[in-house]
Every structure is written in structure tokens, then in C-alpha cells.
Design brief:
The protein is α+β, with helices and mostly antiparallel strands and about 325 residues long. It has helices spanning about 120-125, 125-130, 155-160, 220-225, 275-305, 320-330, and strands spanning about 5-10, 20-25, 30-35, 40-45, 60, 65, 70-75, 80, 100-105, 110-115, 140-150, 185, 195-200, 225-230, 235-240, 245-250, 255-265.
Length: about 325
Amino acid sequence: MRTGWLPVARVEQLPMAGSYLTMDLFGQPIVVVRGSDDQIRVMSSICLHRAANIVEGSGRRNVFTCPYHAWSYDTTGQLKRAPLMEGACEFAERDERLPQIRSEIWQGFILANLDDEAAPFAPQVKGLSDYFDAFQLEDMVLVDTLEFDSPWNWKVLVENFMEAYHHIASHSKTFEPVFHAADSRVLDSDGPWSILHMPAADQEHTDPGGLPNVPGLEPWQERDLFASVMYPHFLLAVQGSSVAWYQVLPDAVDHLTLKIHLLVPATTTQIDGFEEARNALRELVSVVHHEDISANDLVWRGLNAGATKQGRLSPLEEAIWQQNQWWLDKMTGG
């Protein structure tokens, strides 16, 4: 997992030169920044002097100055000033630069990988990219974020996300009447990804909040719901009018922070009544996820019980099986 491709931000979150945001990537503090050359970089935010973190939060600046000894770096990570270092043997500011983290931009998402030798991301998910091509993910913008403190292993959340079987109980009054569990199906996969297709029960189904659909979609794309995972835990819930990006940030075997980012086409933000429609979407996502929280609490408690053994998967849970095959390959070198 520490050597996988993980989404850290959206391009539109860094709109101008000097725009930055920070996060922790498996114990490595990083800063994601748009440089004065308009290039987006991901790099360590740990000072090269005595290992203090040089920046936290988000904002816009052209220079990052360490709060410990005032070493200063530009937006490429180049050391520009190291006060009172005159006389230090074989030291030159021009030779010092913050470590760069491997990064790639895919469909407007900025991804990072701590493994410099990792294979590029985009070719691995071409099948998924092609499937969602009509939704124009690259042209969407982030319009809202919900954050949840989640006291379970991240796999519990991912497995719940990738099956509709639990609609019959956990979402009996929300999702099941609209997206029947029995109608769901999992696509064949040719890479490290899975797609769960949930057809709408009502062939005339439209966005309940009134958001317009992405132009050019076919009717089934407009009304159905799709859950996808790019391994290990890059999660997208795609529908005709919007996308929910579930950003999974594990920090322990039994804890993660979840940020659910809501994305819509840029043109949608200009329609009359957008604020009301966005708030309706936010409320729906919140209600559904709180139902999932209750389910995940049950599962995590059960997984920690001494008598618990591996359960039998339903055919409706094929995406879990697909990801388990990926895990087996990773663990055995297959």
C-alpha cells in the first residue's frame, strides 16, 4: 500500500502559482504545490537541516520558511536561504533541494507514489478510464467536502463501498428502493481496479437535488450509479450529475480519516439554484454515509472477536473477490 498510487488533491485546488496544500502520506509529511512555472509538484515538507516540518495547512505563498531555523525554500523545493551557515564545510544552498515525491495527474486528480520505480498509473487503469470517459471527470471541480473520523481498518470501508448487497438492510429506505441490490453487477477487470454498476430501478430516475447531468451521456449513464476502486483505496462514486471522491487517509491499523469530496461539472456551478442543489447532495451523501458508519462499526467489532472466521461471499460481492486476488498477487509476487 505504501508503494501504490494514491490521490492527494485535485488540480483545481491549486489554482494559482504558489497555491499549496499539505498532508501526511503514510508518515511522510508532504506539500503539494503549483510552482511559478505552473508545474504541480509533490515533495517532502521536512526541512533538510534538522527535520522540522516547514509548512502545514493550505494557502498560497512563494517561499516556505522553516519555523525552526528559518531555512527557506521556493516552490520547486530549492533551498534559497540558510541563515548563518557561513563557514559550514562543503555546504552550498544551490546543492540542497527538498526530496521530490513521484507524482502524476490523471483526470484532474493529483496522485503520489513513494516508490520512485513504480509503473505509471494511467496505463494500469485504461479500462476504467475508457468506461467513464463520457463523464468528463477531468473537467469537474470540487465544490464541497465532508470529513469523518473513522475508527476501523480502511479495508472495511473499501469493501462496504464496493458492494450493493448491503442495500437490502443498511440502506433499506435510502438506496435499496432506488438501486436494487439484486440488480447490481461487477464488471470484468483487466487491471488493478473494479467497477460496481448499480442500475436505477426507475428508468426515469433523475438527480433528487436537481443538478443537471453531464452533457452527452447515454440514458443509462444518466440514471445509474457506479462505484469504483483503483487499488488500494482510490474510491469514486459516479452518477450522471456528480462524482463523490472518497479520499481514504489511513493512519493506523484501526483508524482512518475519510474526506468525501463532491465534484460537479464546472458549468453546473453557474446554474440558478446551485447552492440549494449542492446542499441537497451533501445532505444525501451524509445520510447514506452515516448508515454505512453503523454497518462498518458492526463489522469492525466482529472482525476483532476471537471466534470470527472468514465468511462466504455472495456473487453480488465479486468486487471484493477481485481486490482479494490483487492482494494475493502482491503478497505472493504472482
